Amino acid sequence: MSDFTDKLNQTFPVRTAGALPSTRTYGMVEEALASDDIEVVKAELVHSRAHYQALEYMLNSEARLIETFLDGLANDPETPKPETTEDVVRILARVYGTVVLEAAYDTAHSTGFFMGVLGMDLQTALQNLYADLDWSDPERELSEAELQALATPPVETDEG
Predict the structure, then answer these.
(1) Which range marks the domain in which residue 17 is found?
(2) 158 lies in some domain
(3) pLDDT tens digits for 82-111?
């Protein structure tokens, strides 16, 4: 093990599989699935979805990630400084597996405020928490020509 890896382990310890959020909440999911109460199942589905989507959005929030790496970690005296390409890959992988994962986990729980206090649904809460992301869906949006075709009434002919 390199000196860099030793420092990395001290600063960002590898989480055990048992300490990961999905493992910790496994019992909650199992309990909900075994429940005859649809409200319990729905609540757990929203809870699981919040975690999944928060992680997905966190991983796609490039500006936040770059800020975390360059502004936060680069200036932190406790963070080991990579000297090789392997060190760079190791620190990026470790930060994704610790800092980013934990931030997404915490963000998912932050949706509770938006939902409970402000009355938002989960998607709207996440959109507020990740306001910096582009929420368009180009693959599902209509082009200007398609919109025009829909807006143009059909032409009736004398045939028939």
Answers:
(1) 3-151
(2) no
(3) 999 999 999 999 988 888 888 888 998 899
